[in-house]
Amino acid sequence: MLSIKNLYKSYQYAGLRQNVLEGVDFEMDAASSIALLGESGSGKSTLLHLVAGLDRPDSGEILFAGHRVHAEPEAALAAMRRAQLSLVFQQFHLISTLSIIDNIRFQAALCQRLDARYEHELIERLGLGAQLDKYPSQLSRGQQQRVAIARSLLHKPQLVLADEPTGNLDEASSLEVMGLFSELVKRAGSSLLMVTHSKAMAAFMDRRVNLHNGRLAEIE
Amino acid sequence: MNRGFVWILKALLSHYWRHPWQTLFMAIGLIAGVGLWSAVQIINQHAEASYRQAQSLLGAQASYWIQSRRDEGIEQSLYIDLRRAGFRQVFPLIELEVGTVEGISVSIIATDLLALPGDAFGAEGDTGDFAETWLKFVQPPYRAWVPEALARELRLEAGAQLRLRGGRSLPPALIQAREQQGRRVLLDIGAAMSLSGSDRFSYLAVGPVTQREHARLAALLPEYLELTENQQHIDLRELTESLHSHLTAMSLLSFAVGLFIVFNAVRFSLWYRRATILDLRLMGCATQQLFTAILLETLLWSLIGTALGFGLGILLAHALLPGLGASLQSLYAATVDSDLGLSPLTLLQAWSITLLGLVWALSWPLYRQLQQSSLEAGRSAGLLRDEAVARRRLALAALALALIAGLGYGRIETVTQGFVVLGLMLFAAAWLLPILLAAGLLLAGWLVPRSRLLPRWMVSDGWSQMPALRSAMMALLLALTANLGVGTLVDSFRNAFVGWLEVRQSADIYLRGPRVDYGRLRASPSTRSWLAASHYRIGVNTRWRDRPTLVRGIDPRAPDSLELPLSLWQGESAAAARRVWREQPGKVLINEQLHFLAGVELGETIELNTDGGARKFEVVGVFYDYGNPYFQFYLPYEVVARNWSHHYSRGIALWLKHDNNEAMQQAEASLTALGARPGDWISQAQVRRLSVGIFDRTFAITAAMNGLTMIVAAIALLASLLAILQERLPQFAQWRALGLRQGEQLLLVATPLLIFCVIAWLMSIPLGALLSWILIHKLNIISFGWSMPLVWEFEPALRLALLVLLICAATLLLVSYQWRRKMPQALAQLGETI
After folding, report:
1. Average pLDDT, chain B
2. Are the Cβ atoms of B286 and A78 closer than 8 angstroms?
3. A113 interfaces chain B, CB cutoff of 8 Å
4. Is the pLDDT of residue B514 over 70?
């Protein structure tokens, strides 16, 4: 489903070029989950952004669900993100001016995949039933992250990309949310590629890979 | 439109729902800008329509006039003889000026409806009641047809009789008007005669005649009457064009200030929604879709702005039109009625300019936002980082604009060109402002001692506020400059005008009309006790270089002639030039309009058509002639009397021996004894009140627009500060958590704001002076042909400084209220976990 071949990415900082990814090769099957571990600045988030088509590689290929992500125009990448992907960040990225229910429905409405029964189920499982008419600023961070999770899954994407999704929460809440998240991803039949620092969070995933010196290595 | 797109639109528009303050400011900026612009457009277009109507005013369309050379009016018998001789195109007119008991001057026009040629009064198409109305109009006790606006002004109700000075009154009023009567009261000729106590007509108007008829008509007239061609056919559009251009330019300035606010609001609305836009892009919204959605949003705003702004424009036009209409009538005899006719074209224009303004305001920030990659768009450092670059770019653009304005200044020949140069200059100044604000901050930072951490921090916080305050400061600078510049123009003009009136209207009484023989008056023993001096004036109407022109014969030794203020003269002094004009034959004085608009120079020899053919006169001086749209030549009385047999009387000015009430009462009694009736004369006090009243009414619109522009700028400031509050609330909460007090926090916002306002105010002073200099020395001369000395006073600038301080204080109060409301929540979110 996701295939990354010989991927290179570098950045220019203060006149100096810094190589972040140096020939990354990576394969991911449908309905699987992978934890992407690594030190700070190792390029984990960069890799995630490249997979989502938010950034362009220097060279190499990213193939996802029939898309040549590394080469397709912005419009095609936008269509791909809308229907086949979803992103969950540490900062939630909720639309502050829309109500919680509108936020949950938003991406599914964009790709016209609203499903009332599944929506109800997600809201129940994530314990958001009493918050639907509120606005993001009226919710706690934990609740906001649950809304972000609900939004990312309602349209049943093929791949969910998560960047430290519980980084803003305390440990107990992180474990609870992560448990729910991985379970709901599986139930949606989606894959999950998650960047994390935490081994405890990584334990929820099928596979764990480590990004070190610009290359990926499987962790057994 | 698919459902996905509707959701995008919903997400974008929800911003306005959740941030009503921003929505309100954006709406106010748009509505105020469009309102001010469209008010002037509505007035100008309405005035143009009225000028077209003025062509059909009673008598204005006449091909010829039959007038008395002696200003004595015309006997009824002559009129009857002419009608009997087959001249059906001849009809009588009486024009009167009467004063009400409240001292308001009212113009009256009277005619014989029966005698009017064919369609001259447009009776057809009226309702069946017209016959009855018409019968009442021509039969005692008669009816006075009063236009609605005039009736409102006079507080006159239908059926009521307007009370006049001297115990007279008008017939019962009928509130209705024909476009041919303009702003005048229309009476039947019989009613006018009984009101004036005279059985003579003012003049006879003659419709189109063949050459043979013309010759026959001229032969039938007695020697003291003359058949003159209607040369005073005034092209009102041409005469008033400059005034309307001035108004349009002022409205565009207001629109520009409004535009800065919209620019500000649009920038903020995009900036606030960068997170939303980022989310939308992360969720797969294509740039194209976002662009289309924002364009649709813009279209919606333009419709709201146009609808409400145009509504405001109509209200403003209604409020400003009566004053302006009265001025136009006084200055140009141009009639503008007060019932607005709105054309769909004006509405369309308003919408186009609103949409263009919005697209202009939106294009650059939107381009920047959508051009950035999704990742860059989410970084909040963007605005700050770009600020320095934007400042430098704006400064470079400002220099380019200033250069173009400088090059264009020497080539200004028309009012429009002048305002383009002014516009370039003002925009150059506005765009230069950000770099000066930055320089001001650097200087302030340098002045604060290094040991004073808190003050240093407060000054340096200006760098964070700069992006949000930049456009508002530009709007403030423009508003302050316009206020100072236009205010100085008006003050200078008023100063020059009042000084000029003191000399030109130094006589105590002005007497006109045929009832008094001026020769008898001067010789009468009854006047000796009070009459110190008199000035009998005659005149000839003609056209010169295709513009209505007056050739006036004045008494060179009359007190006002001896002091006639000259702006240019030949020889060593104005007095010497006046002496040459008085004593040497073939010399003429011209008004400034002839010098500036027709390009007549001192020492130039001009030709005037006299009864004996063209005669040459040498120009020895140029006199000020404020408020006059015509060209005017001054010649000694005898020269005009000798060369133009058909000259007519322009009345007589009388100086009293003593400046007191007793002398005035004596003079009035004397004039009444000589046959004059109240209304034939007007006192100096009345005439000055009238003149200054016209002046103030004319500039009331300027003051109103200046005030509104300041309000618009104040709103920009408020919107910007609230934007800062909204944007930086979490930051302020963090600082509060560090122990910063609310007062210190308010100082943090207020210090840079005050520094910026002081810089904008300081910059507006030279800029306002420059604006008034160009308006007075360039545009006023091109527009009206009037020159005047620039009177610069510091007091208006100080008043504006106080006003700016008040605006800042009010804004900070609102900000602190908003803080109180929102800070608890921001503080609560500081350390929050699940």
Report:
1. 80
2. yes
3. no
4. no
